[in-house]
Structure formats: C-alpha cells, structure tokens
C-alpha cells in the first residue's frame, strides 16, 4: 500500500455467522489450494465505498444463493494476509430465502448445533470469531 494511504473498508473481509434455529452455518472452502478443505464463516472482501453489512449480504447472495441480513457486529477484528482484516457479523435468513447451497468458493455446507461447533476444521483466523459467537447458539426450540 502507498505510504500515507488511509485504511479504508477495502481492507476489510466480512464473515457471516449465519444463525438459524440455534445452528451456525459452516462452509468448506474449495479454493485457493492453501485454504481448500478448511471451514469458514462465509463472506468476502468489502468493495470500495461499500458498507460491510451490504458486502455481507452481497457475498452471501453470490456464494450461497440466499437472501440474508446482517444482525450485529461480533466484537473484535482478526488479521488475515496483510492488509486484510476479518470482521464478523451475525446474520439471519430473510423470510422466504432459499436454503443455502454452495454456488462458488465452497464445496460443502453444514449447519452446526452448539455441541458440534468444533467438529469442523475452521480456518485458524476464524476460530476466535467462532468462539465469540458460540455462546449465542442455543439448543432451545426456534
Ligand atoms: N477469509 C477468511 N475467513 C473468512 C472469509 C474469508 O480468512 N471467514 C479470507 C480468505 C481469502 C480472503 O479472506 O484470503 C478473501 O475471501 P474471499 O476469497 O472469500 O473473497
């Protein structure tokens, strides 16, 4: 980055902790090779001038074919490959949304109950965010 360039939203990657019925959606990456097979909170890069919450909705539509909305920011941000940082929002499906399906970047999706949340091999950088979100899952009825 050019010295003196202000940090903009361009450097933010948004991840979605998509919650539904007390379960968290995990997505297994199919690319790039060094991340393939690991599980993540789906999302992607915020574009210049875009609000992170809008980027999240756009990325979930592109990658999973769903209509979702951001609910609240999970406190904290976590470094990725420079200059990117990961920020996470909880999110929910809008009424009438199609069910998520892996359209790009992923080859498998899994809804995790609280007792199963650590059964998938999360990307290292996503682990602290998943740890933050896990107390928000409940085993109760939807
Ligand atoms: N990324 C990540 N954790 C996430 C989402 C994305 O570490 N929950 C990383 C993977 C890529 C970069 O952010 O290096 C951009 O993501 P994408 O390729 O999905 O746009």
Automatic annotation (TrEMBL):
EC number(s) on file: 3.6.1.55
Pfam family, one: NUDIX
Catalytic activity field: 8-oxo-dGTP + H2O = 8-oxo-dGMP + diphosphate + H(+)
Cross-referenced PROSITE patterns: NUDIX, NUDIX_BOX
Lineage, opening ranks: Bacteria, Bacillati, Actinomycetota, Actinomycetes, Kitasatosporales
Protein name, UniProt field: 8-oxo-dGTP diphosphatase
Cofactor entry: Mg(2+)
InterPro entries in the record: MutT-like (IPR047127), Nudix_hydrolase (IPR020476), NUDIX_hydrolase-like_dom_sf (IPR015797), NUDIX_hydrolase_CS (IPR020084), NUDIX_hydrolase_dom (IPR000086)
Flavoprotein in keyword set: no
Domain of life assignment: Bacteria
Keywords of this entry: DNA damage, DNA repair, DNA replication, Hydrolase, Magnesium, Metal-binding, Mutator protein
Enzyme class: hydrolase
CDD domains: NUDIX_MutT_NudA_like
Domain annotation Nudix hydrolase: ranges: 9-139
Family: Belongs to the Nudix hydrolase family.
């Amino acid at each position: 980055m050019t010295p003196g360039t202000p940090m903009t939203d361009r450097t933010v990657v948004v991840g979605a902790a998509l919650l539904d019925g007390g379960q968290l959606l995990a997505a297994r990456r199919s690319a790039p090779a060094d991340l393939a097979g690991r599980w993540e909170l789906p999302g992607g890069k915020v574009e210049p001038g875009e609000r992170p919450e809008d980027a999240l909705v756009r990325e979930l539509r592109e990658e999973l074919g769903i209509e979702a909305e951001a609910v609240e920011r999970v406190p904290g941000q976590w470094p990725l490959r420079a200059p990117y940082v990961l920020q996470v929002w909880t999110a929910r499906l809008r009424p009438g949304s199609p069910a998520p399906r892996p359209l790009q970047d992923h080859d498998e999706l899994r809804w995790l109950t609280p007792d199963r949340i650590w059964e998938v091999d999360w990307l290292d950088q996503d682990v602290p965010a998943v740890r933050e979100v896990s107390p928000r899952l409940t085993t109760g009825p939807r």
